[in-house]
């Protein structure tokens, strides 16, 4: 059992690694095309990659006599998730144009703290550790993003709004996932986000085939590896790992993004910014720690 758990943990870490490096792919992708074109292509790729997994799971469930999820709810959930994902991803993509991938990774991870706080509006109890984590994260954000003029940079601001919308995205998933198949919802949400971004690209950008060919490496990474492969690794890995442990492993995505930006793009952070990263990551870990069981 321990071997199975270790293997699952490694799969989750690989997913976090892929997602962390994806920030670099997103940054490099801007050298070849606009944000709308990049996101349109990557999400359509992600949808196509997940399609075989959807078919496989349906066939497997049919053989095991597991009833299929309600089609209308699955489609509705996928479209709602796709709308939120499209908005969040575009803000993140534009934000990465004006900030480092390391900062973007840590700011995006704030959704882990925002989700339970937003749960207040759904009449859910917010543990005290979340409020403590929010204070620590806020101070970390101050060190990470605020300049000497006490102003949030354009890129950091866009990614922060992206984290807020990602929080909404997670709450939407939380609402629909018990009623439908998670992989099918993900496939539809990628298709929805891809179509919307592609239409936007045709209206506001001038996408050319040569741009996609030149930027095929970051596109394939963000579209196939980050969407299809990493998501599959998460689904498989979480089967034998406690949810809290899984969240802790997946949150390493932010650390990987910073290291990837430093190693690949040579985007170094100052000592102040690094300390801000440490505080944000500490807050994320604090929020995910299990509550003490009452005796």
Output mean pLDDT: 85
Give the uncertain stretches in residue-range form. Answer: none
The total count of strands amounts to 0
Number of domain units: 1
Report the sheet with the most strands, covering strand number, pairing sense and barrel closure. Answer: none
Q: Strand share of the residues?
A: under 5%
- Distance between the first and last residues' Cα: 28 Å
Share of residues in helices: over 70%
H/E element sequence: HHHHHHHHHHHHH
Structural class: mainly alpha
Tally of helical runs: 13
- Overall shape: it is globular
Please give the radius of gyration in angstroms: 19 Å
Description:
The protein has 295 residues and is mostly helical. It has one domain. The protein has 13 helices and no strands. The protein has helices at residues 2-29, 35-63, 71-96, 101-108, 111-118, 128-145, 154-176, 182-204, 209-214, 216-237, 243-250, 253-264, 271-288. α5 packs across α6. The longest helix has 29 residues, at 35-63. The chain is globular. The two termini are 28 Å apart.
Comma- or semicolon-separated keywords:
295 residues; 0% strand
Draw up the topology in text.
Blueprint: H1 2-29, H2 35-63, H3 71-96, H4 101-108, H5 111-118, H6 128-145, H7 154-176, H8 182-204, H9 209-214, H10 216-237, H11 243-250, H12 253-264, H13 271-288
Helix pairs in contact: 1-4, 1-10, 1-11, 1-12, 2-8, 2-10, 3-7, 3-8, 4-7, 4-12, 5-6, 5-7, 6-13
